[in-house]
Amino acid sequence: MKRTLANLTVVVALAALPLAGCGQNDADKAKTATPAPAASAPAAPDAAAAKAQTDKLQADAATRLADMDKKIEALQQKAATLTDQAKADAQKALDNLKTLRDAAAAKLAELKSAGQDAAKDIRAALDAALDKLAKAYDDAKKGIEK
């Protein structure tokens, strides 16, 4: 008896499934089934926001490079007071810093001339170049101040 009642409940539930969508006509179903396409008007604010973000990154990167130039100059002055071998080691570190600084500056120039589509990839490369330069500076500073 319990088994018959369970089977009957399943049959009734399956029979009721098609009726669940009967309250909507085809137009209502189409509205709820497919999301509305995005309007082209919001794309302009997104592009403007991306441009503003890129401009801010360029300004920040230029500031970081200018600060790094000052720090490198201070290390050069300190390295000039070192003894022969220490001075040679310091000069190698300073040359490396200048190379990394030039690479970061090149990435910044590339970002300035790139379109918004390519800017995303260049931003990541610029951030990586600036981080590498900062780490190399810290290492060089430790070596020179020994």
Explain this structure to me?
The protein has 146 residues and is mainly α. The protein has a domain at 50-144. The chain has helices at 2-16, 26-33, 43-79, 84-113, 116-144. α4 runs antiparallel to α5. The longest helix is centred in the middle third of the chain and has 37 residues, at 43-79.
Topology overview:
Layout: H1 2-16, H2 26-33, H3 43-79, H4 84-113, H5 116-144
Helix pairs in contact: 3-4, 3-5, 4-5
Structure characteristics:
mainly alpha, 5 helices, 146 residues, elongated
The amount of beta strand, in percent, is under 5%
Order of helices and strands: HHHHH
Can you tell me the overall shape? elongated
List unreliable stretches of 5+ residues: 36-43
Oligomeric nature of the chains: single chain
Distance between the termini: 92 Å
In short:
The protein has helices at 2-16, 26-33, 43-79, 84-113, 116-144. The protein is mainly alpha-helical.
